[in-house]
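User: Nuclear protein localization protein 4 homolog. Structure?
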Amino acid sequence: MSSIILMFLVRFLQVNNSQQNILIILNWNIGKSLPFVFQLLRVQSPEGTARVEVLDSDVTAHLFERIYEALNLNSFAFTLHKDRQRKEEITSSKSRQLRDCGLCHGDMIYLNPVNGAVLFEQSSTSSETHRKPLSESSRPVQSSEPGPSTSKVTLPIPPPPPGAPEEDEVDLQLYKVSGLIERQRDEKLCRHNLNGKCVHCTPLEPWDEEYLKEHNIKHMSFHSYLRKITSKNFVSLEELSCKIKPGCREHPAWPRGICSKCQPGAVTLMRQPYRHTDNVLFEHANLVERFLSYWRATGHQRLAWLYGQYESHPDVPLGIRARVAAIYEPPQSSSRDCIALETDPREELVQQIAQRLGLRRVGWIFTDLVPLDVSKGTVKHIRGVDTHFLSAQECITAGHYQNLHPSACRHAASGYFGSKFVTVCVSGDSSEQVHLEGYQVSGQCGALVRDRVLLPTRDAPDLAYVRDSSEHQYVPDVYYKERDEYGNEVGVSAKRLPVAYLLVDVPCGVAVGGPPTFGATATFPPANRPLQQHLQTLQALHRHIAASDSFLEAMSDLHVLLYLASNEALALGMESLAPLLDAVRLRDGDAAEAWRALPSAATLLHLAAADTGHVPAPLLLAEGVRAEGGRAVWTCAVCTFHNPPAAASCDMCAMPRSDAL
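Assistant: Predicted structure:
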C-alpha cells in the first residue's frame, strides 16, 4: 500500500517538475523494495539535448508525451531511437513499458522528425518555415481516407526568370498547392486532441513511397519529384546531351580531335521515377469508337492526334491529367502492318480552330490490331511482358513528338524540361479485346532521339540499336544496369538496348458523367478518310445537322468546324467562324442560332440542303423559290435552276431531270 502511495506522490511531483522533492522521497525510501525505478533520460534532438524524468514502469506513449512537453514541440511527428543509426526504434505504445525497451537511468535517446516535419518554433524569416506542415487553421477537413491535399497554400517557389517561356496553367496551379497527403486521426494510436498531430496522423509528403505503393501509383508525378529534390536545396534541371560541346579551340574539330572538356560523358540509362502526365482521360467512348471505325471498315491501321487540355489529376498527389476532347486524323497512307504520314495542308487551320476552342495537341494515338475472330469481335494479343509494349521504332517516334512539344519549367536552365505529350496504343489485351495503353518515353530517351543516337532494329522490336561513332558524329558510350547470375547490379553496354528502360506507363480511361466539350453522338465523317462512305460532303453535313438535337449540338464537332472552314463549295474564314467557335466553347445555343442566320452561314447551309434535294421552306422563301403542293422543287444538275416538282426536264436548259445532286 505504501508503494502505491509513494508512486502517486512521485507522479504528482513529476508533473509539477519538482525534482528536488522526488529525490527527497527517494532518499527517504532508501533500502526499501520499490515496484518502480526513477529514471532520468537524455534526449538528443536537432535543436540540442534535453532531459526528461520518467519511471521505468511508464508506457512508451508517456515518454513521447513527456518529450513533447519538455521540448515544447509543435507536433508528435517524430520518432525515437536508442542509437544514432536509427536501427533500434522506440515505438509509441499504451501497453509496452520502458523497462521492456531496455532503457536505464542516464541513457541517451535520439529524436528525429518524420518526413522533414518542423517540430520547433522558428522565426518567420527562416526558409524552413515555408516547408512546415499546414497549420491547424489552414488544414482542410480530413476525410475518412488519406488523399492529396487541395488546400491553396502559397509555397516558396522561385519566380520564372525574365524571358522564360510561359508555363502551362496547370503547372501554375500546382505550384500553389501544398500537395501534402492528409491522414485521419487514428482512434487507436493517436493520444492527442483533435488539434494535434502525431507520427500516426501527420500529413505525408506527395512522394511518400508507401502511399504510392498502397494506391498502385507506379510513378510519382513530376511536381512531386520537384518538391522532393528542392525540399532542401535549389536545383537547376539539366537535360542530357550526347553532342560534343561547341567552341573548343584546343584541338581540331571532330573527327580529327576531341578532349575531355568538349567530350560528352558516358550515358547510364536509369528507369525514370516520375512522369510528366499521370493519366489520359477520353471524354466519352464514342471518341475511340469513331476512330476505330476506319480499321473496322478496311483492316488497315490508323494514326491520329489527340486534342484536349491538361488539368490536375485528383487521384495522384500533384498529378497532371491529359483530358482528350477530340481526335483528328491527318492525311496518311496505311496498310495492315504500317502507317506513313503525309503532308497536311490544313494542319495550321486545325491548330487555329483548336486554340480558339481552348484545346491543344496533347498526344497521339495509333492502332495495332489484328482480327482473330470476326464473328466474336476478338483481336490477337500481340503486346505484353513476353513480347514488347512499344517497339523501338514507336519509342523513337514518341521521343520525336515529345521533343516537338516540350514542357516549360522554371527550374530548367533552358526554360524547358521534359514533355507532357502522351502516346496511346490501341491493341489487343490478354482477354483478346480491344484495349488502350498509354505511355511516355523518359527524358533520356528523348535526348538520345534528339541527338540521333537511337536506331530501330529489324529482327527484334523490343530492342533499339545505339549508333556507332563515325566521322560525322561522335556517339558516347551508353550503358544500362541489370543483375547478373549472382544478383549483383552491373553495367551492360547498350549497343542493343531493351526499350523497356525508356518507357513510363500512363494509365488510360474514359470519363463517366460530366458534359463533354463536343457532342458524343456526332455522325459527320472524320477528315482525310479515303472511303466512299466516309467522305465529307454537303450532303453529309446536311444529314448531320438534321440528325442532331440542336444546331449547337451539330456544330460541336471538330470535324464539322474544320469542314466549314475548308470545304470547296464556300469555305468560311476564321473571322466568319469566330462567333460560332466562341458559342461552341461557351455552350451558348442562342449565339449559335444567331450565327446560323448570318448571310455566309445561311448560304452554305442552303447549298448543303439543296445538294440533298430537300431545301427547307424558310430557305426557299428567302431565295424567292416557292414550293408547290408542299413538295420540294428539284435543282437542275447542269444549270442549277430550280424547277417545279412535276417537271420532267429543266425549264431553263431543257436537260432531263437528274437527282444526282
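The chain has a mean pLDDT of 82. The longest strand covers residues 303-313.
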